Amino acid sequence: MDWQEQYHSKHGAIQEAYHVFIKSGLDLFKDQELNILEIGFGTGLNAFITLIEYEKRNLQINYTGVEAYPVSAEELDQLNYLEELESLSRKDDFNLMHASAWGQKIEITSSFHLTKQQKLFKEINDINTYDLIYFDAFGARVQPELWTVEIFQIMFNAMKSGGYLVTYAAKGSVRRAMLEVGFLVERLPGPPGKREMLRAKKQ
User: What is the CATH number of the domain that holds 23?
Assistant: First the structure.
């Protein structure tokens, strides 16, 4: 895969991540313990911005990031998230996120715990576990098998009633797959460069 294609949006990965996962997802919650599942841990950007933002909402976070193909140290070295986010003071936290062992629950702060799982998305078997899912898989054009009824059934099963799934995707086929497994789906204004995005709720 072309890493440049996968991990960079020409409109800015950080701006897109804030719009899709924080504004349209995390901001739905406050003053509670929150279980988050990220589909596509990738460079750790979504986990890191959640770490930056969660305290403002008085949340306690249990964050699970699933990634079948972890990025290499060389790829991580190309990133400048700390500078762009003006968060150099959190360099140790960012490094700990990536240095921590896979398959173990790690305390990043006293109220932010991270578990990274290296496996395929279809191998997720959690039931009624997550309040919020960040669905950040590679696009349907690149990996259509990640945007199927089968995968969204796994997401639906893993989510608690009242939970939400947010994704940058807006394709009709993705929306139909979500509806088929029982999600309520709404179209929201997309991040810069994208007209729409999707948010799904489990009643």
Answer: 3.40.50.150
Question: Tens digit of pLDDT for each residue in 63-100?
Answer: 999 999 999 988 888 888 999 999 999 999 999 999 99
Taking Cα atoms as reference points, which of 43, 44, 60, 48 lies closest to residue 22? 48
Measured between alpha carbons, how far is 41 from 64 in angstroms, rounded to an integer?
9
The distance between the two most distant Cα atoms of the chain, rounded to a whole number of Å, is 45
C-beta neighbour count of 20 within 10 angstroms: 25
- CA 169 from chain centre, in angstroms, equals 13
Average pLDDT, the chain: 93
Q: Which alpha helices (H) appear in 56-171, and where do they start and end? A: 73-77, 81-84, 91-99, 149-158
- DSSP 8-state symbol, 168: S
What the block records as the tokens of 72 is 């290499």
Residues 154 and 124: beta-carbon distance below 8 Å: yes
Query: Contact at 8 Å (CB) between 170 and 188?
Result: no
Domain tally, the chain: 1
Q: Where are the beta strands (DSSP E) in 40-138?
A: 59-66, 105-109, 112-117, 130-135
Supply the range of the domain harboring residue 122. Answer: 3-201
